[in-house]
Amino acid sequence: MKTSIATVSISGDLREKLAAIAAAGFEGVEIFENDFLAFDGSPAEVGRMVRDHGLDITLFQPFRDFEGMPEPQRARTFDRAERKFDLMQELGTDLMLVCSSVSPIALGGIDRAADDFRELGERAARRGLRVGYEALAWGRHVNDHRDAWEIVRRADHPNIGLILDSFHTLARKVDVETIRSIPGDRIFIVQLADAPQIDMDLLYWSRHFRSMPGEGDLPVAAFMRAVAATGYDGPLSLEIFNDQFRGGSPRSIAVDGQRSLVYLMDQVARTEPGIRCTVPNMPDRIAIEGVEFVEFAADEAEALELADLLGTMGFFPTAQHRSKDVTLYRQQGINIVINTEREGFAHSSYLLHGASAYAIGLKVEDAAATVARARALGAEPFEQRRGPGELAIPAIRGVGGGVIYFLDGKSELAQVWEVEFEPTGRDEGDAGLLRIDHVAQTMNYEEMLTWLLFYTSIFRTHKLPMVDVVDPAGLVRSQVVESEGEGLRLTLNGAENRRTLAGRFVADSFGSSVQHLAFASADIFTTADRLKRLGFRALPVTANYYDDLEARFALAPDFTDRLRAANILYDRDGDGEYFQLYSPTFGEGLFFEIVERRNGYAGYGAANAPFRIAAQKRELPPRGMPKI
To answer: Model-level pTM greater than 0.90?
Structure first.
């Protein structure tokens, strides 16, 4: 199926939009009338510009308040339609969208509307044009695709067809299975959009909160399966109204859009026999078995500071790279790598961001298949020159321009530590830290949907409901992405202003990155004792927090005293319990967390975030005077 996107979906002027749409790999574009009206050029120029980009105009839209009008307004609607037909022929497109009327003077009646469309079909046919009818969820008389289809069916004209829009169907919770009975050749185009599940006015919800398929909460895949069952094989087009997208990068949003359509059709193709994905032979979503390593870029001085901090958590240099200034710090299933090379990508990352966790290594089922799927979904591959004896580790670019490496257990990649590193002879530390519990990536809020779609489309992961983390200076949106089992837990934290701790981190490190790593412990009190002997300084928590905690959860005083003595935060959800211990911040605001989960606790201690953030802000050095 041909992929298409409406110009209203992305920011910029018409030239910028078309360039971004073509670069993202779309084959078609819907021309939204306002974008055309704002363009200083003739319809013929717009048509040539579209074709010069290798695109087709799949649709001209919208034509409003057509059907069911009383005279003399009815006659004027046909005059308006003829003017739009003139415009379409100059543009070089044959399909116009008519959305169901919202006019207060429009008359109801299926047969009346069908008569209007039959006449419009005759006029369109004389020009070799087609008209598609779409039911707006807030239409005055027609707000359901079933009624729109009945009007099209009764109009009984080959130049009049149905336009289906996932938002209008799903927002009203219309049964998508009713689509399966519509003949596929009577559907002229399918428009797709997702949205978060919000209880609000349908028009406002549609105009401000639509998102790409897979970024919201609506069952767009079920809608598309029903469409596929009709035999429809025309364009799949995105029509997204979103305030965030209107201010974002046109190229980034266009790439997200193409990725969302490829991912959607991949889902449909794997469940509907006979349906093909838009990218043939794309591997299925990849299972993640764990975080194999996290790699930091630093200079020599900051590397020593980071090594000292890691040492207080029981990490020691267990191996040295055979040909590079790269050191491995290991404890149980946790591998931390510090790279102080003076050339290459790590050094470039350091020059841009300062000391940072610029790369993550994920252990997956199949590393080569992971990169193949990622590339099919528009991810940017990463390669750099290899030194003698180094393995070719498959990789792609990730959040903030960082790197995600992939290793698996069925190739030579399983031996990376033995092949590339020389043991130092020093034993691994043992402070009771077992594995990486979760990785927290901080970004501008506007980037969150991009990276949510990135992770959920490439990997076998799912998202949890978004939560608000309260910072004394404002809200931070937090979105969790988890794989099956304990392979990968990610928290995507979106900063909306620079006064929050997350916003300060993004500003100071010049971009999105990993802000903190959480290590899992089987017994956090034993771990806290070992860390104290190693010189670990825990983030201090106020006495007021523990007084409230004891009252809130009816904790035994001696248990509260143990928490207080070790500066451990506590949360409970049913029978599940969660313990958190934080390090001081390092560099531009990066920090470490030690957690213990008991009795199936599945959260991330969001209730403790305001107190943790307040404590961290007390520890931060004051900012310098602003430059003039």
So the answer is: yes
